[in-house]
Amino acid sequence: MLGEFRNPEDLAYGLSGEPERPLYKVGFLQADVWDGYGGPASDRLYADLYEHWLEHDEGGTT
Amino acid sequence: MSHGHPLEEVQYESSPYAARIRAIEALLLEKGVLTEAEVQDRISYMEARSPANGAMLVARAWVDPEFKARLLSDPKAAAGELGIDASAPVGFVVVENTPQVHNLIVCTLCSCYPRAILGRPPDWYKSFDYRSRAVREPRAVLREFGFEPPEDVEVVVHDSTADMRYMVLPMRPSGTEGMSEEELSRLVTRDALVGVSIPRYEGS
Question: Which of B37, B3, B7 has its CA nearest to residue B142?
């Protein structure tokens, strides 16, 4: 959790962006993201993602 | 200044984008939305910021472990201690390179960059090539910048897609034990602060 910020999708249209949305730093193993990733299995990728950009994982293994 | 970078895009003064932005600026001035002084203030603000700010933070962190702890836990306050105004409304995060981890910063969406600290990003940072490849094949990108982390070092890519701005705290090169903070700061390049390179000391 990185903090709460105004919603960038609203801001882009000149709206207030309120209420603020939680922003998370979400980590992935590169090998899980890309087929045939060329580096070691431990390489990681972190992306800053707003809560409303995320979906509940229904138990899938992707 | 940054010639020779593998991902450099050539920018021409006569590009349609430059012409468009000048036209927009002229209109905003004409309609009284902005004044000439406000535009000039903003340009001065950006030009007062440079990678030297980041180098100063890194050099202080190398010689002062307590400052380093503060730089990692509360980067804005730590920047303030050195007289660097980091009060811009976006977050500022410093990620530390270690013998196990090498960090690389990218913004795949656009060109998010800690401008409040380091000034304007280099052109290659904004290129489609860098933005797509830094997440997809970071080690290939690093190799093109002349740096190959060993296989047992984790390459960790930070995609600053939102309101946080990232800077890398690189490792202090060996052989620099006797150097002053001032001398150390000269080893810290802009590329090292983005993580496409590391500080090097030839005497080591």
Answer: B7
Instruction: List the single best residue of A5, A35, A46 to mutate versus B (max B Cβ within 10 A).
Output: A46
Residue A36 reports pLDDT greater than 60: yes
ipTM of the complex: 0.84
- Would you tell me which CATH number, out of the four given (3.40.50.1110, 3.90.330.10, 3.40.50.300, 3.30.70.100), belongs to the domain B50-194? 3.90.330.10
Domains of chain B, residue spans: 12-48, 50-194
| Spatial contact of A27 and A13, defined as CB atoms under 8 Å apart | no
**A38, B137: Cβ pair inside 8 Å?**
yes
pTM (predicted TM-score): 0.84
User: If pLDDT is split at 50, 70 and 90, which confidence band does B13 have?
Assistant: low
Residue A31 forms contact with B (CB below 8 Å):
no
